[in-house]
Amino acid sequence: MVHRLTWFEPARAEDKLREFFITALIDMSATLTLQDQQGKYICITTLPARWMLKPGVEPSDEAIFGPELGTRLGELKAGLVKPGDRAELEIEAGDDTFFEFRCRMVEMGNHEINLMTVVLDRTEDRRRERLLRALLREVSHRSKNLLAIIQSIASQTARYSGTLDAFLGKFRGRLHALSQSQDLITDSSWRGAYFRDLLKQQVDRYVQENGSLVHVSGEDVMLTPNASLHIGLALHELVVNAVSHGDFLQRRRPIEVSCERFQTDAGPQIRIRWVEPVGNINKEALSAASSARFGSTVLERVVPSSVNGRATHQLDDKELRYELVFPQEIFE
C-alpha cells in the first residue's frame, strides 16, 4: 500500500509496525493521539511522564492535561472542522519545559474524519535558542568593546605619528597584536587567553630567531578576555620597543618576564614584570621611546585603567623595568 510517500508491506504483522512507530516516536520525544470527530480518544502513544491518565478514567483533554491546558486545547480543536484544518499551540509546562501541540483534521482510508494531535517536546530547542540569543548579545557587546579599542589605538597612533607611513606601520602592528589576542580568546570559547600564549605571539612575530633571549617564569595565568586584549597590546609595545631601541639582541642579554598570582586582603592579584637589560646605548633615544609616546600611554595609563590595576615603567642605567599589578577577574 502506498499513500503520500508512505509504504509498508501488508503481509507484515501489525505488531511489528506498531513497535516500529512507537519506538520512533519515543526517540523523537513525540506523542501521537487520535480522536474521532466528536472528540472521543481512539489512540494515545508515548504520553510524556508529566501527564498521566489514571486507570479507569475515560480519556479527555482535561483528564490527561489538566483543566487549564485541557480547556485551551478544547477551544483550539473546536475550530477545526474539515480535513486539512490545522492549528498549533506551544505551552510552557513548568520546570523550564516546553511542548508544542500540532492538531490537524485528517481523512482516513475509510473516509472517516479524525483529529490527530502530535505533541513535541521543544525544551532543548528553546534552551538552544536562549543560548544563541545570549551568545549574540555577547558578540555584540564584545564587538563594541573591540571597536572602541581599535578607535582609541587609531586616534592615539595618529596623534603621535609624524607621517602617514609612520602611522600605518605602527597602527598595523598594534592592530595585528590585537587580532592575535582575539584569536586566542576565540579559540578558548571566549574564556580568555593564557599569559604565555600572549607573550609567545609577540616574541614569535618580532624576535622569532632569538626567542630564547626572552625568559619567562612564574605561573601561566588564564586572563579574562578584557585583560587578554589589553595585556597583549602592552606586550606588543614592550617587545617592539626592545627590538627598536634596546640592545639585548646585540649583547645577547636576555629579557626576564614573569607572571605570578598572589593573595591580598582585597582578593587575588596578578603581577606581571618585564625586566629588560640596557647597555651602552643612547639613553635619550630610549627614554624618548618609552615616554611621551602612545606606547608609554598604553603601558602606563590605558592597560592599568582597563584592568583596574596600577603600573610602574622605569628606566635606569642598568635596566628598563615594567610592572603591572591588577586584581584577578572572575570568569563569567
Automatic annotation (TrEMBL):
E.C. no = 2.7.13.3
Q: Which reaction does it catalyse?
A: ATP + protein L-histidine = ADP + protein N-phospho-L-histidine
Q: Which UniProt keywords apply?
A: ATP-binding, Kinase, Nucleotide-binding, Phosphoprotein, Transferase
In what residue span(s) does the Signal transduction histidine kinase HWE region domain sit? 138-220
Q: Which sequence ranges form a coiled-coil region, renumbered to this chain?
A: none
Enzyme class name: transferase
What SMART domains does the database record attribute to this sequence?
HWE_HK (SM00911)
Any Pfam family the entry gives: HWE_HK
MF GO annotations: ATP binding; protein histidine kinase activity
Q: What is this protein called?
A: histidine kinase
- Species in which this protein is naturally found: Rhizobium terricola
